[in-house]
Amino acid sequence: MMLVESLLSVDKNSQIPVYLQISNGIIRYIRQGTLKPGSALPASRALASSLNVHRKTVVAAYDELYAQSWVDVIARKGIYVANNLPEVSARSIDKTVQKHKLADSTSFKVDNERVNHRSEFKALPEGNITFTEGFPDTRIAPVELMVREYRRMAGYRFTHKYLMYGSEQGSENLRTELARFLGETRGLHVSADDILITKGVQMAIYLCAEVLINKNDVVIVADPGYIGANEVFEQAGAKLALVPVDEQGMDIDAVEAICAERKVRMLYVVPHHHQPTTVTLSSERRMRLLELAKKYQFAIIEDDYDFDFHYTCGPILPLISADYDGNVIYVGSFCKTIAPGIRIGFMVAPKNFLQQATRLRRHIDRQGEHLLEEAMANLLKNGDIGRHLKNANKLYHERRDTLCRLLSEQLCDLIEFKIPDGGFAIWIKYRNGLDSALVSEKANELGLSIGAGTDYYYDRSFKHSFVRIGFASLNEKEMIEAVEIWKRAILKVR
Amino acid sequence: MMLVESLLSVDKNSQIPVYLQISNGIIRYIRQGTLKPGSALPASRALASSLNVHRKTVVAAYDELYAQSWVDVIARKGIYVANNLPEVSARSIDKTVQKHKLADSTSFKVDNERVNHRSEFKALPEGNITFTEGFPDTRIAPVELMVREYRRMAGYRFTHKYLMYGSEQGSENLRTELARFLGETRGLHVSADDILITKGVQMAIYLCAEVLINKNDVVIVADPGYIGANEVFEQAGAKLALVPVDEQGMDIDAVEAICAERKVRMLYVVPHHHQPTTVTLSSERRMRLLELAKKYQFAIIEDDYDFDFHYTCGPILPLISADYDGNVIYVGSFCKTIAPGIRIGFMVAPKNFLQQATRLRRHIDRQGEHLLEEAMANLLKNGDIGRHLKNANKLYHERRDTLCRLLSEQLCDLIEFKIPDGGFAIWIKYRNGLDSALVSEKANELGLSIGAGTDYYYDRSFKHSFVRIGFASLNEKEMIEAVEIWKRAILKVR
Q1: Which of A123, A141, A310 sits opposite B88 (nearest CB)?
Q2: Does A87 score more than 70 pLDDT?
Q3: Would you say B415 and B481 are in contact if contact means Cβ atoms under 8 Å apart?
Q4: Contacts of A317 in chain B (CB under 8 A)
Q5: Do B151 and B49 reside in the same domain of the chain?
Q6: Is the Cα dihedral B427, B268, B199, B191 positive or negative?
C-alpha cells in the first residue's frame, strides 16, 4: 500500500482538481502495469493523510475510478484494481510490430515546391516589446462577452442543434444580423442569402482565387501590397500584374493600361488603409475602377477589412454599394474587431458566384464553428459589437495621436510619415535611405521587435526604407519605451 | 417627451438586459432621425414609471447613452440628444448612389460547374424523428466542459496570446497532448511536430488532395464509399478507380489489379467501420495494402475517424503504426468525440508532406481557432476527453444493442443486417429488393427521416436496397417510435 502513496503527488495550485490528479495518477500507474489487476488500493483515510488532503477528496477520486471501471469495490474488504480493465486494447496488425517512429519522409513523391510560401509564423522573442504591423490590442478583446454567450448557450436545450452539421453558408442568425449590420454601417441592402461566412478574410480570398482563376489568368494587385493575397492568387495559377500606389490609392491609369493590353480576370483592392501604405482609395478612383470593371468585365475583390476603424473622417462607402452590374465581391472580417485569433470573416457577392464559393467551402472544411457563429450573432444583435467598436475606436484614436506625437517629438530628424485616417498602423519612411531590414535587426538586439519590411514589395530582394508600425496594440507607457529603443537602433545603424 | 415613452417598449423575458433594450431603442430612434439632435429626453423618473421599470434601470440606460456619446447631460437642466452624434457616417462615393440591391449575377464569367457537388445541407423537417446515417448524440456532448475551459481562459492574463496570430500548424499544447493521446490509444510514437491540426477530417482530406493530386492522377476508393472524399479528389483533378468492399473491407486483390495496370497516386481507406458498410479492414489485408503501397509507391490516406468507438472487440492498430516506409497519411477527428459542429481534426504524416499541407492550410484560413484548440488541449490533458469517451462508448454500446434487438424483434422479415463492432451505424439490406429511396420517401411522409441511400454508390442512378441507420443519437423511447414508423413505411412500399 505504501507504493501508491509514494507514487502519487498532488499540486493544490494546479488547475486540475485534486481528486482528478489522484485518480489520473492511479490510472497512469495501472496503465503502465505498476499497479497490477487485483492489487489493493490504500484505505481512503490512510491515503488522505499521507497526501495531506481531505478524506472526501480521496473518496471522490475512488468514485471516479469506480465510475470508469478501473477498480472493483468489495464490500467490507476494500478497493482493488479491477481484474477486467476497461481499456479496449487495440490489436496489432503485425505480430512483429514495435512502437516505432514515423518515417522521416514519404516514399511516394511529394513536390516540395508545390505550395508557395514567403514566410511562416514565428513566435516573437520572449520579453521583447513589439511594434506589430498593425493589429488590434487583444487585451481589450471582448472575450468575456463571448464566454457569456457560450455559457448561455451551454444551458439551452436547443444548443445541441448547433452542435450538429448545419448550413455550409454559415449560421443563419449570424448572416441575418450581419446583413442588418452591413446595412446600418455600409449602406448595403443585402439579405442573409447574399452572405457566406468564412474563416477570416483569408478564406474569402482563397475561395475567390480557387473559383475564378484559371492557369495564367491576369490578376491586378497593388505593389507594395498584401502578400497574403498575392501568394494565394499565384498558387491558383494567376499571373500577377503589379500597379503602383500613391496618395490616393491604387493607380487607376496603370490599371487601365493593363486592361487595354491584356485580358484581366480579377483585381484585388484594399480600399481603406491600403496594406501596407494606409492610404484610402479616393471616391473618384473608385468610380473609375467600377467603370473599368464593367467595361473589361473583370472581378473586383474588395477587401474592406478596415472599414470599421476611422478616427479623423468617415469611411467611404464600399465599392459594392455603387456596383449595379455585379463586378464586386466584398470581403470583410471580425478578426480586427474582436481579435485575429477569432476567425470570422464574410463574403458578399452575387448569387451565382456565392454558390460556387459555398460549394468549395463545403469541400474544404464542411462548415464553420456554429457555436462561435451563434455567439457572434448574439453579440451583433444585442449591440455589444457596436459598443465595443465605439470604445475601440476611441482608444485607438487616442493611441494613434499619442504615437504620432511621440514620433514627431522624438524621431522627426530620422523618419517621415503622414498621420493615417484610421486603421491600426502608420506607414513610415526612414530618412537618408536607411535600410529597414538593418534597423529591424539592430532593434531586435536591443529588445524591440519591428518589421524588416520584407513582405511589402513583390520583389523581395528590393531594399527600401519603409516600415509599417502598429499603434493600436501598445499603451502609452509601452509606446514610450518602444520609441526610445527604436531611436537608439536607428542611430546605431546610421 | 411623450414621444420617447410611447416609442419604447421593454421585454423583461428577453436575454438582453432591460437597460440595454432602452438605450438601444433610443439609439435606434436617434439614428432614424425620429429623435433629433438637441431634443430633450424624459426625466429618468418619468420614463421609469411609464415603462414600469425601476428608476435605476433608466439611469443605467442613460449612463450607457452618455458613455457612447449619444446624449449630452446639461447640469440642472436635463439630458439631450447630442448635437455632435458619435457615428462616423460614411461618405458616398457617388452622389447619385441609392441604396440598391446586390446584382443578381456577376458581369464577369463564373463557371457554374466549377465546383462539383452532389448534395447540399438540408435542414430536416421539423418534428420528424430522425435516423441519422451515424452521428453521435449531441445531447451528451460535453459542451459545459468546453465552456468551463473558455471561462477559465477568459480570466487568464496570458489568454490574449491565444487571440493573436499563432502557428498555422495549430496549438502546440494541443499537438503535444494529442501526441500523447495517440501514443496511449493507438501506439503511435509521434511528437507535436508530426501533427497538423485541421478543421475536421474534411480539411485533412482536402489538403491531401490539393497537395498530392495532379490532373488525371489515379486515386483508388471503395465503392460504396464516402462521397465527401470522392468529391474532393475529383475536384482536385483525380480519376477515381473504384474497388468493391466485402466482409473484410476493401478488396485488396482489386487494388493490386489496378496497380498492375495503371500508375496509382493515392488510395483512400476507412479502416474501421467503413463508410457506409461498417466493416473493419482485416489485419491480413492491412499488411497486404502496406506492401502494395511500398511496391507501387502510392500514398494511403487512412481516415480512422472511428477508432475511438468500439464495443465488441478492440480496434486494430492503425496502418500507420506498421508503416516503416512513409506511405501512410493518418487523419482523424474529434468531431465524433465531441460533436460534428466542433470542428477539430488532425493529420499525422512524414515531415516533407506535412510541410506542404501546413503551407496550404495557411493559404486557406491562416490558422485554426486557438481558443478552441487550447480548450481541447486542456480537456485531453486533464482526462476529460478520456472520461467522456468511456461514458459515450458505454452508452452507444447499449444503444447499439437496443436497436439491434428492436430490429430483430420488429423487422426480421423485412430487413437483414450484421451487428457492427463499433461506430455509430448499422448497414441494413431491405429484403425482396425493396428500393431504399421509396422507403425513405414514404417514411418521411409518416414522420421519420431516414436515408434514401443516394450517396453510397458512385453511380448515383444505381437503384439498391441498402440503408445506413445511426443508433447513437436516439434513446430507447425514440428508437421504439422510429422503428414503429419505419415498419409501417416498409409495409406500405412492399
Answers
A1: A310
A2: no
A3: no
A4: 90-93, 97
A5: no
A6: positive
Cα B142 from Cα B148, distance rounded (Å): 10
Are B197 and B344 spatial neighbours (Cβ–Cβ below 8 Å)?
Answer: yes
Cβ contact B356–A110 (<8 Å):
yes
Q: Helices marked H in A236-274 — which ranges?
A: 252-261
Low pLDDT (below 70) residues in chain B: 1-4, 15, 32, 68, 85-89, 93-100
**Which of B108, B130, B266, B298 is the best residue to mutate to test the A interface, defined by the most A CB atoms within 10 Å of its own CB?**
B108
| Shortest Cα–Cα distance, B278 to chain A (Å) | 18
| H or E, element range at B41 | none
Query: Would B270 be classed as within a structural domain?
Result: yes
Does residue B351 sit in the same domain as residue B301? yes
ipTM score assigned to the predicted complex: 0.86
* Residue B365 covered by a domain: yes
Query: Nearest chain A Cα to B122, which residue?
Result: A167
CATH code, domain with A437: 3.90.1150.10
Q: Which of A382, A407, A437 is the last residue of a domain?
A: A382
Spatial separation of the C-alpha atoms in residues A183 and A185, rounded to whole Å: 6
The model's pTM: 0.86
What average pLDDT score do residues A447-472 get?
93
Indicate if B190 and B64 belong to the same structural domain: no
Chain B residues touching A107 at Cβ < 8 A: 293-294, 297, 325-327
Q: What is the CATH number of the domain that holds B257?
A: 3.40.640.10
B323 and B280, same domain (yes or no): yes
pLDDT, tens only, B296-349: 999 999 999 999 999 988 888 899 988 889 999 999 999 888 888 889 999 999
Query: Is B119 contained in some domain?
Result: no
The minimal CB distance from A20 to the residues B91, B189, B383 is found for B383
Q: Cα–Cα distances in Å, from A486 out to A155, A416, B149, B202?
A: 50, 14, 39, 46
- Structural domain tally of chain B? 3
Domain hosting B250: range is: 142-382
Mutation for B interface: A365, A369, A390, most B CBs within 10 A: A365
Residue B96 lies in a domain: no
Dump pLDDT digits (tens) for A338-356: 888 889 999 999 999 999 9
Query: Residue B484: what pLDDT?
Result: 97
The rounded distance, in Å, linking the Cα atoms of A377 and A10 is 42
Same domain? B246 vs B310: yes
From the list B117, B143, B164, the residue facing A163 with the nearest CB is B143
Average pLDDT, chain A: 90
**Same domain? B266 vs B362:** yes
Q: Are residues A295 and A267 in the same domain?
A: yes
Query: Are residues B306 and B207 part of one domain?
Result: yes
Dihedral of CA atoms B206, B211, B214, B215 in degrees, nearest 10, equals 30
Question: How many angstroms separate the CA of residue B391 from the nearest CA in chain A?
Answer: 8
